[in-house]
């Protein structure tokens, strides 16, 4: 079935209602091309293909002269429709695609809709590529979402209905038919009434409603025989004939079939086709001629470029000689410097090796210190819990304090080393500023009481409740500065003041001030205090820390893109200030809060396996575990762990890393090879960042660094065990 009348009518509409042609030459020239285009379209409606092709060929030439993409596209489309009607499918596709190319350049929506719809007609009805055809129709609909394209949308819907009904998919075509019935005023034309009526007839015939089907078919074929669009009328007779044959009215069916053949014969007169083919061939020759002219123009352009290239080559040779002279001079300098550079390279390699050795040394020392510290802190806590009468013992308090001091020293050294090696990355966490400052105040209250200091906090009320940023690094900065202020102030006051400096978009720039009325810092010492291990005003009997605190503060602020300011007078006090931007975004904050892991607690008694070679650490870890009503077993090495796992099931395994015979990583790998899916947590004195990659590749589920807070341990245990039970 052919139904190009939809395309013809749409083209006429576009020509008459779209005034946005680009006036690139004189108004008379464009008017002439418009007139030729209209004449070509009129001849096409009359199925006079010979004259239509000749007129559109002349119009196309003028349109190219004017460089008017819209007129070029429209005439290419008319030529495509001519070939489409004549059954020259590949030629029609060629010209349709050219039309669509120039329509895209001119960005005329109605024109793009019409050409895409024509491609749909061709693929569906001629090439029998039904899916591709309907896809083109739906693509055409996407272009016309605006209200001013209601007519084009209605026509495209008509084509889609026709396509679905062609393959007898009446259910799929019904929504589009309903749309046209509701918007038939948008069609505005008798030719469209013919198509709409016999499509309605086809639908009611498909659902066996004979009365309605006959009514619509009768309307379709009753149109005047003088109608310009005889194709729709021919199809109306054809479909009516099928319907009449279906209901047993064979005489009437035969009469309508004769009408279809008569009209079709008139449309495809042999003489017209012969003349049109000759005109079409001439048009193709004109297209090839245009391509040859384009190639010749390109050759001329290339010839001119070649002349320019010769000049460039000569200049290049001259410049090359100059560069050669400079290179010879440079070689002499390079040879002179080469020896010196080799010495620098050797020095660089020595420095890098020293840096690596330093990192390895710090890692080893921290591990060797943390292991006994875990035992000291653990046993001290056990003594205080089991012997309440010793809670007032100065000796035990001193022991616990000393262990925590040593642990703080190890952490400070590791922190400064990480910053220097660019291993610290800021995190985005949601936090409440008031809560964070209150926790800092509470953790340092013992120091304030020791030196009889007042602790004052002022926080701007305009600061949002929740901000986004690295609260852990902020806490490190404030704890270092506030603890210094409390140490060097006696019977005085320490203030933490936080105000809004400025607001830029979603970022609040906060101004932090930490000041005291303590001993102060002499002007001569103020440039030294941010260096590593430097302390000023220290007395032998005082505890003044490691000398790393302010160095860490300065480097952490550098990560925030900030710097610290110092104002101090000897004997009057000290003030440190800095600015940090934090993001305020309620949606992000809600997302971060939702993503925080919930502490899953359980009343169940779980069975834990501890793999640890150090006897003291075995004792401490076992006591902590059993104190919380967990069942616990301890083995000394990896081989013993593999053996016991063959006989017993455990809910979780705590695995030491640094063990003799077989380390924790290798033990974990072998456990996983045996098919054991029990969660395994590394319980180690190594820094977490140093072993994370190897722990994950070995099959470990998490890492806890000794010494640890028991609350953190049981949070991880409960979470991993619960998740494992869900997965099981």
Automatic annotation (TrEMBL):
Residues 278-305 form a coiled coil. The keyword Phosphoprotein applies. The keyword 4Fe-4S does not apply. The modification 4-aspartylphosphate is found at residue 656. The chain crosses the membrane at residues 311-331. Keywords: Coiled coil, Membrane, Phosphoprotein, Signal, Transmembrane, Transmembrane helix. Its EC number is 2.7.13.3. Residues 1-23 form the signal peptide. Pfam families: HATPase_c, HisKA, Response_reg. Residues 607-721 form the Response regulatory domain. Residues 364-584 form the Histidine kinase domain. It catalyses: ATP + protein L-histidine = ADP + protein N-phospho-L-histidine. Gene3D superfamilies: 1.10.287.130, 3.40.50.2300, Histidine kinase-like ATPase, C-terminal domain, Tetratricopeptide repeat domain. This is histidine kinase.
